[in-house]
Amino acid sequence: MITISGVCPLFFRVIGEYGALPDYDQKFHSSDTILLQLFSNRGEVPTATLNNETENTSSAISFSVYQVNEGVKMYYASLSGLDEATYTVRINNLNIESLPFSIYDSDDLLSNTVLIRYSHKDNNTRYDAIFWIDNVQQFFEFRMEGGFKPSGIAQKANAEQFRNQLQELTNVYAVPYKTFIFTGGDNVYGLPYWFAELLNRVLCLSDTEIGGTKYVRSDGSEPTIAPIMEGAQSFNITVTLEKKVNDAFGIGVLLPGSTDIFETTMYPESLWSADTDTDIGYVRSIKDGVPVNISVQVPSWCSYQIGSSSTEGIFPISITRLENTDTISRSGQIIITQEGSGEQIVWNVEQQGTAAPVFVFQTTQYPQSLWSADAGSDVGYVRSTKDGVAIDMSIQAPSWCTCQKSQISTPGVYSIGITRTANTDTSPRSGQIIITQEGSGEQIVWNVEQQGTAAPVFVFSINPTAETVIAAGKTVEVAVISTKDGNPQDYSVTPAETYDWVYYAPIPGGAVFPVQPNTSSQSRTATFTFTQNDSTRQPITFTITQNGAAAPVYYFSINP
């Protein structure tokens, strides 16, 4: 479930049962801050849009998150510095839209309005509202037509008197004070009734400023409405108030000893930008009705100046901060000490870090990851920017590659040409092209591989591998096939030993072995080895066996 703060300065739920809604333009100055707080108790994340009705544009509202308790989160955003235009805020989850409100830069156009700022001493209220976040007080603001008329100022006194026997009166004590009738609206246009409801809720809080002065309702006074004419849906709103600090004796004069005041009347901004700038806050410091000096301590990256006190004991404190050149935010405390009492007021402040540069470093097109063994070139593309501006890079490549970068027409995109040498080895080789962005140190790695040169295909065979020859001798022919990748490949023939009866002679397509006659009766063998040049093929052995000569056949006989 999502709810809207009960003291939201914008109006979402309004009724018009008794007539049409009044045509009213809620007004803010461009320097005003519109604090929007939404509460969720079921894990639902609210979303909202700010609609510029003048320009017919919309933008999402970015919320910060505050954990109220275990089951409830508060999502809050401050709308400030808006351009002059008419706006609405739409809560998408609730499907509701605020009534239109307008932003003005001109003080003259808002001269009949009064700024009402309101907060509370703690976060314990009956409304969905958070007034303190990390010890920093949150203020809501809205404007309404109205102010204080002289005729609405009444002189009052709270007195106790004693009448003696002669019926003569003596004041035991008497404290004068004043009441002020605040009038919202005017007799011509008036205000919608819901301003009375918001004003009544605001006056239930501990801190309500109207036109820069703190007020409280007088003796339980309640806002009353009076239509500007019969049947009208616009009203004049009146309520009786008193100043929170009694100045009935004169501006800034208090009853001696009655009240000591040491309080913040206006806080500086609690979250500062990284730039050098000056902010201001106000402290009221009074002792027995007399302004009391203050001392200030600030963080080392701040300086301060205390302005002159007003008659009401209000001291302006100007705080100048140095630029935060670090990307990390820094925080500190401004400690204001009241002289004499030693009481202290602490303002917690935080300065944002300088926005970290936005680096973009990415491959937009990869080169081929697997290359042939031949020499060649390839190209890849990398986008390298810092805050939208092209930024250089360095490149490391394997020893068998060279790289050349060049920025192309697309902003921040570089082409990286890669030239490789031929891989004469049969084994593949791999490596990394490492591209490093200047400034960020981020790296892009391209893994590349180059195939090895294909191993040659050798064919080597002889036929026959053995031959038996008769003793008479003959010429033996051996057919040889010897190729490399289909082309003839040289080979050699080597005898196992020196033979005087057989030798080798090459012929086209093979070899011949002339064998001499064997006159011995014993057989004999010769071995020759065929070896293919520059080849991984195994040598082939050729064996010739020659039979021995036949033994003579003797005939010997007698007859008779």
Automatic annotation (TrEMBL):
InterPro entries: BACON (IPR024361), Ig-like_fold (IPR013783). Coiled coil: none annotated. Pfam families: BACON. Residues 397-450, 512-547 form the BACON domain. This is BACON domain-containing protein.
